[in-house]
Amino acid sequence: MKSYGNTARVETEREYVFNYDSKTGNSLTITYEVPEEKALASLPVMGSGTSLMSGVILRKATVKPGEGGIASIKLEYGKPDDEEVEEDDTGDTDPGDSEFPEDDEEDVVEQSLDGSVNDEPLLSHPKAQSGINDAHREYLKAVQDGTRLWELVNELNEDGSPKKDKDGQPVMKPLKQLLKNLSDNGKEVLKMLLQGIHSYRSPGATFREARMVRSSAVNLSGLGKIATPADAPTPSGRNWLLVGKSFSRTSSGKKNRWRVETIYELSGASGWNKKLYGN
């Protein structure tokens, strides 16, 4: 008895028959066990070849339900009628062979990376995050939102809470006066805001990947969550969000194989928020 990986698929018998009679040809029989719900999905395509024996194709597949929800599968390979071995595109063969994909195995078909730039608020730039306390950030945001410099606004404490006079009333001052004590970094941001620069162009990217998967992998799990797509180049401090999944198959293709395209979007400089997009 031989098992494969972490699946419940277990080969119980294999028989090679080498026949000198060219009309009869050689034959191969493989018997394995698998949970009943995975039985049909585990079958190779009828007429496909196998790397275990040349010159034969799958002529017959028998599924026999058994006890405990385990089905017994018998694959019978024989000589093709036209004396040509017709191999399926995915090369389905013996359940233990590398050409027979496990249920969770996926074949990469295509990968692509599209780079672009997006508009982001100026105050979200990494350089606008340092050396500026909460109060000054609120004053700068007021400028960004269109508040005139002569307008009265609440004076704030460094933590952003409103200052109050002895009577408990908010202290109001002209915005221009409150902007005088900005840090050097804050003054640079203010200068750009007054010049009409309210956003900056931030590099972004979309990573697409197409794979062939089994029917059991057809689901929408992971959408809207932070992900780590294989082989996707990831700048320091950033990560990816799974933003799209689409599945398709053709009537002429294998019924238990689907083409899935996944789409990932690159985060900004600080990464996607784990509280919003984490698992």
Largest pleated sheet:
5 strands, antiparallel
Shape: rod-shaped
The helix tally amounts to 4
Query: Whole-Å distance between the termini?
Result: 39 Å
Poorly predicted residue ranges: 1-7, 83-105
Write down the Rg: 32 Å
DSSP helix fraction: 10-25%
Structural class: mainly beta
Count of beta strands: 12
The strand line-up of the biggest sheet is: 1-2-3-5-4
Percentage of residues in strands: 25-35%
Helix-strand topology string: EEEEEEHEEHHEEEEH
Mean pLDDT: 80
Describe the fold and architecture.
The chain is mainly β. The chain is built from four helices and twelve strands, in the order ββββββαββααββββα. The strands form three sheets. It has a five-stranded antiparallel beta sheet with strand order 1-2-3-5-4, with no helix packed on it. A hairpin with a 6-residue loop joins β1 and β2. The longest helix is centred in the middle third of the chain and has 11 residues. The two termini are 39 Å apart.
Task: Tell me the layout of helices and strands.
Layout: E1 2-3, E2 10-17, E3 27-35, E4 57-65, E5 70-78, E6 107-121, H1 134-144, E7 152-154, E8 172-174, H2 175-178, H3 184-194, E9 199-214, E10 226-227, E11 240-248, E12 257-266, H4 274-277
Antiparallel strand pairs: 1-2, 2-3, 3-5, 4-5, 6-9, 7-8, 9-12, 10-11, 11-12
Helix pairs in contact: 1-3
Could you give a short description of this structure?
The protein is mainly beta and 279 residues long.
List keywords for this structure.
single chain; about 280 residues; mainly beta; five-stranded antiparallel beta sheet; 4 helices; about 10% helix; about 35% strand; rod-shaped
